[in-house]
Amino acid sequence: MTTKSILCVGVGVPGLPEGWEIIQVATPADARRHVQARPCAVGLLLVREADQRDVLHGFLQEHWAQHWIAVLPPALLAQPAWRQLVRDHCDDYHTWPVDNQRLRHALGHALGMAVLRADDAAPRAVGDAALTGQSAAITRLRRQIAKVAAASAPVLIWGESGSGKELAAQAVHAHSPRRKGPFVPINCGAIPAALIQSELFGHERGAFTGAARDKRGLLESAQGGSVFLDEIGDLPMELQANLLRFLQEKTIYRVGGTRSIAVDVRVIAASHVNLEQAVQRGAFREDLYYRLNVLALDVPPLRERRDDLLPLAEHFFHAFSGERAPRVKGFSSRAAQAIREHDWPGNVRELINRVRRAMVMAEGRLILPQDLGLKGTTAPAPLALDDVRIRAERDAIDASLLRAGSNITLAARDLGVSRMTLYRLLAKHGINAPSRAGYTDGQSE
Hints:
By secondary structure, this protein is of the alpha/beta class. The protein contains 20 helices and 14 strands.
């Protein structure tokens, strides 16, 4: 029988059957030390009348991802502040004296939900998440990045604002032979025109008023690594000529300098405007465009990554968990539908901002469309009964796969169908099958 670990905070452990491992600690301070060494997915909070609500509130806010069940004296539960604590932080509650059978049932249910959500327990960094997913568009981009990274030629990345161009550039650098060298990002549109030449190429002492000493430019500081020129289309024409010379000769001249300096860096450039059209308008040098456009990458907008929307939203929910209102536990089915239907003109950056806003503004346990600022984004036309049934079926499958971390066995169990039936439903609704979408079938569990 699989051991079930319960972190029990407080005095007096109710009777539990064999197979349950009770890890007893007396205070929240002891629990903090234990959780750092050995996390438990389910916690049992044994509250007495002498306990301080503020101390417990701070502890539970820190460990919100655990499934907590509280046992309280009836007198405390009659107080509004304690009822608020239970609403905000606990999946269930009981009062003293404990009904052991009811408590065992509640703990079993909490443990089952913890298993379904296990994949969310260790979220990746926010930046990494933007390039993860199982959609065809992002899978294709990852394959291209792996090929491009191995070469040494310049890279030109195109993508809409907020789509993750810098993250793609970082991935190219991280998978390249230069990964041990520096990665220096430069926003060409953010540096004042009067300073950009000095910032890029550096300057010699006395080159201009205030140049009290020699200064290395950003290109020099990237020696042995990669330089990322973001929004290269905003680079002034005279600087475009200097950059072209650097790409051709691999040397630079500092402002006010007379000697050439060899610089070994890989140039990765990005733009949200079409540089080919900018060349035709005379706003960008044609020779520089062809120098940069040796290896091209297109970062897909979020609207072309529909299969990634909900996993990304869940990821950002966990990544920014410290900002959320205590009671907020996740997304409602209506919010998930609104996320799927929105066009996301601001791409990943917009998704992050809307999720963070909803985590603060939500008033219930689940985020609603209006919390995301997506209320009224769709005006559904009247649906036939068959259409309603199909939509409900697809929504149920999507929600189960999300809860199960894309594990087919767990999702089928959650839906009350066999694995083969779930596979047939995936095909029926055009949801990516496991072999293509990265789902797991749970056979090895």
